[in-house]
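Review form for a predicted model. The reviewer records the input and the model, then writes brief findings.
Reviewer: anonymous (R2)
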Amino acid sequence: MSRSFSSLIIPVGFGCAVVMCVFSPGLTDDSTAKSQSAESRIDKTPKTSKLTLVSAGAVTPSDEAIALDFAQAHHPELAGLVIRLQKRMQSQYARAIQELHVDATRINRLQQRLPERYDVELKIWKISSRARLLAARLIHVGNAKAREQGESNLKQLLLELTEAKAAKLKLEEQRLALRLETVRRSIALIQDDSEAAADRELARLKRSLQRYSKTKSTTKNPAKPTAKQVSTKLENN
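Model under review:
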């Protein structure tokens, strides 16, 4: 692998190992002898049933559904490749599902709470996923021209990823700026009239103590029933 290509793969980040496994010779459509040999080795490997993976806590049906739905919605090609792992490489399939489930849960959680953050986080995930897939493909590209074009496409994706991450940081900057303004207003309010602020705090503490005293008194000395309450109770009996 050339130095220039290595420098492009490094920033791609987490999950690359799973994608590399997806593109291993045993899972490609190539019918060459090398591919057939790889498949025979895979077939001889002891397999873990899907039920065992589920019972061991590696993959639950719910996790699997969430992960695959997320991948199908936002990167269908990846979803198809992960599904192909299920029969031949179940441990890698479980790992891929776990990674997808973590990402899907984290990103989907933002959809209702922080829509703007959701959009940028989803964009980052989609670009990263495409970049990892392309990087994995380039490992098996022998043609120099095709490799050069692939590296160019990968670099473009990484540029888009950088822009998306910058947008995420800008959102964080805006959030922190609002928080800082709130803190500054609180400081100014206290400093403008420190005596009034102390009086307000003292009043708050007094109210808390009074509530506590009343609760404690009621617990130790429960109120005695009135004559009317006793009479009503006797009539009911």
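Findings: Confidence is low (pLDDT under 50) at residues 1-14, 28-56.
Further findings: The two ends are 93 Å apart (CA to CA).
Recommendation: see findings above.
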